[in-house]
Write a structure and sequence with these properties.
By secondary structure, this protein is α+β, with helices and mostly antiparallel strands. It is 30% helix and 29% strand.
Length: 677
Amino acid sequence: MLLAFAAFPESVDPCFPEQWHTRQAAETRSLTRWPPARIHQLEAEKIRLQKKIAVLPQHDPKVLPDHLGYHSSCEIPGSEGSSPVSTIDLKMEWPRMVSIAMAPAFNPQEPGDGPYAFPTRFKIEVRDAGSGTFSEVVNWMDEDFPDPGPYPVFFSDINLTIDQVRITVPRVERESGVAYFALGELYLFLEQEGQLADNMAVWASVDVSESESFDMPPLWDGRYLCDNIVGLGVPLSGEKNSVKDLVIPYENESLSEPVQIVLDLGQMQKVGRVDLWPAEAPYLLAIPSIGFPREITLELSADPEFKTSETIHVENVGRRMQREDRLSVLCRAYKARYVRIVMDDLPEFMGQRMLGLGEISVSEYGQVFSVGCDVSSKGIPAGYVDQLPRLVDGYTRSRRILPDGEWIKGLAYRRPLDRRLARVEDELVEAREAWRRMELQFSIWIGGLLCIGLLGAMGLQRLQRRRILKKLKLRITRDLHDEVGSNLGSITLAAKRMEDAGSSPEDLSELSLMAREASASLRDVVWLTDQSVIRLPALLQKLAERAERILSGVELSIDLAPDCPGRIVPLTFKRHLILFFKEAVHNCARHSHATWVRIVIAAGEEQLTLSVQDNGCGFDPSQKSDGWGVDSMQKRAHELGGTMVLQSTPGNGTTVSLTIPLSTLMKKTDYLYKTSN
C-alpha cells in the first residue's frame, strides 16, 4: 500500500522561516470574550481537531533501551580545534526523488523530558544528479527551528532527482555551555509517481557518513542513524478495529518439529523486506510480544516445494523484540512467489507453549504483496487453521498497519494538531472556570439585589402600614374627640342646666357622673391610641388625672410617687391596672357618698402600691354585693400578680390597697372580667 500525497499537505514542515511565519499568521483565531460563546467556539474547534487526529497514526513515543541514534561530539564553541559546523552526508548509489524526514532522539536517563538535543539550527542541501550542484531545500541557519517535541519533522516537495543529501548543523551553544546535537533516525522516502515508497536510508545502496560523532554502543553510534530503530512507537493507525491477532496456545500437542507458515503471493515478486509483527496479548494482559518465536528462518522460493530457495536465518530475535516493534528482515529484492517462515523455540506462558503473530507483511519499495494472499501451515492445530487469514489482513493490535512513509509523515502532520488541541483544551478549562466564577458573581449580585429589593419592599410595606395605622389612629382619635367628646360635653351641660332648674339631685348627679366617666374613658382611649410606648410614670399620672375628672365636687388628695422607675408597661398590665383603678374610683363616686377621698401611689424598684381611701358610708365586705365589683377587682389583682386588701365597715368609709411586684411587667395577662360599670 502506497501513500498518496493528497492525504496530507504538500509540505508538512516549513523549509524556511518565512513559511513558518506565514503559517503562524494564518492560524490566528478570533474568539469572543463572552464566556458562553467562547466555550461553544472552543468545543466546536476541539471536536474538529479530534476528528482530524483520529484518522492519523497513533502517537505513542517510547524511550528505547539501546540504539538511541546519532550523537555529535561535545565541544565548546570557539575553542581551539573545534569545527564551526557538523555535517551528515547520505550518498545514494541510484539517483532518486525523495522526501526527507528527521526523527528526534530520546534520553533514557531523563525519559520525562521529551526529545533530546534536537538541532535548533540546520540546513539541508541536495545534489542534483544531472548537474552535480548542491541546492538548499531547507535553511534554518539564521533562526531557531520550532521545537518538534516527540514528533518527527518531514520535508517534501523537493522535486529534484538527487544522489546525495547533506545536513549541516552549526555549533550552537546550549545552556550547559557545550555545543552538541542528536538525531534518532534519518529517513529518505522514495517518491514514485506522486507516492511515497520505501525508506531508502536503510538500503545497502545508501552510504551514510558523518564529519564527527560521539560513539558509545549500544546507545549512540553513527550506524544507528539509519537502522530503522526509533522511539516513535509503532506504525499503526489511530483508529481501532475489531480484527484480532493470531494467538495459539499449545495445550496438549507436542512440538517435535518447528511451526511453518507459507504465503503464496500469487505471482513472482521482488521481495525487498519481510516484516513479522508480534501479537497483542489477549484479555488486555500487559505482556509484550506474547508467543513470538525466538528462532526464525525465512525462505524465499519460486517453487512451492522449496527445492531451491533463498534462506535467511534471523539472529538475536529475543533482544530485537524487546522493543515491542515488528521484526524486519531485508531480502535484497530476491524474486520469489512463495515465502516460508520456519519458527522454533516458542516461549511458554502459564506452563504451556504459545505462538503469537499479528501480521506477516511482504513488501518492496513500500508496496505490500501479502495482503489477502493464500496462507498454509504446518504444525498449527486444526482448530486454529481458519484463523490464518488474520496474518495477512493488514491489521495488528486492532489497528491498520501503515507504511513507514505514511506513518512518519502522518506523525509530523499530527504535531501541530496535537499542540493546538492541547491549547484549546487549556483555553476551554480557563473559559469554563471564568464562566463559573462569573456565574457565582452573578448569583451573588442577583441574590444581593433580591435581598435588598425584598428588604426594601418589606421596609416600604412596613412604613406604609405604619403611615396607614397612624392616619387611622389620628382619624379615630379625632372622630372620637370631635363627635363623642362633643356629645358628652353637651350631656354635662344639659345635666347642669337640669340641676339648676330644680330636677331631682340624685338623677342629675348620676347623669353628671356618667358623663364625666365617659369623658374620662374617652380621654384614656385617645391617649392610649396615640401612644406607641407607655412607661409607668406616665400611666400613673394618667390615673391621677382620671381621678380628678371623676371625683368632681369631692375633696380629693392625691399623693403620687416622685421617683417612679421608667419601665415600659405592657398592654395587658395597663388594661388591668386602669380598670382596677377605675373600679375603685367609681365606687367612691357612685356608692360611698364620700366627701373626701385620699389616693396614695408609691412605686419603688421592687413593687408598686396603690391605695384609695374615702370617708363614705362603707359596707360589710362579708355581704356579697355586685354593685361594688369587689370580685372583679380581686381577679384583676391576681392577674397582675399582686394582692388586694379591702378594709370597710358600715358608716366608717372604705380603704382599698393594691400591691404589685414590678417583675410582673414582663408577665402576659389577657383575660376579661365583669366590672360594676
